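Thought: the user wants the 3D structure for the chain below. I'll pass the sequence to the structure tool as-is, report back what it returns, then summarize two notable features.
Action: structure_tool
Action Input:
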Amino acid sequence: MLASRSDFLHDCIIMFDAKHVCVADIVALQAGFPFRGAIEEAPADGVLAVQMKDVDPEAGVNWRGAVRTALGGRKHPDWLCAGDVLFVAKGARFYAVRVDQPPERAVCAPGFFHLRVKNPAAVDAAFLAWQINQPPFQRQLQQAAEGSGQLSIRRPVLEALMLSVPAMQRQRSIVGLADLARRERQALQQLIRNRELQLHALAEDLDQITQQDAQLGAQQDTP
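Observation:
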């Protein structure tokens, strides 16, 4: 794993030939489906509605948690497709997730912007999501955020923000490095959890032995 990381870093630190472009240059952007009020369940004939609770910058989209609902109104749905990017545009944290293959027809709820790369041969969607989540772009978002009670990013503001897009080979190298870092975090977190469980088990065993010794001592002291 260390050798792989070294190879990725060596590839990524080579001088980039990157283009400085605004978001609107490389993606088609749509707002989430305009649900009116709460999203109600409709198990029989509904479609999946991805909400804020269903996305995570590390894990992506949790399709199993998405509500099945009926779509009202006359607006034609912008169906989610593999390779799309969802941008969380409201709340304390702005971030993006790449959409994997939806198990069936699905839309995103208000609060998201639905991004679709215009030219997949030039821009990798996973790279786009990665760059949106990095400090340089996050600083742009924090400076552009509006609102008092709840911060949000307006569509024209997001479309005007700037990205740095290197050649596709560099994009894929960066995505590979990011994926490697994610797997390392998961492995370390699992190791920490396993160690904590081991220590908890030792504490329980120690407590049980202490109680047994106390009971035995009490029995011996009984006349």
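Final Answer: Structure generated. The chain has two domains: 1-18+168-223, 23-165. The two ends are 66 Å apart (CA to CA).
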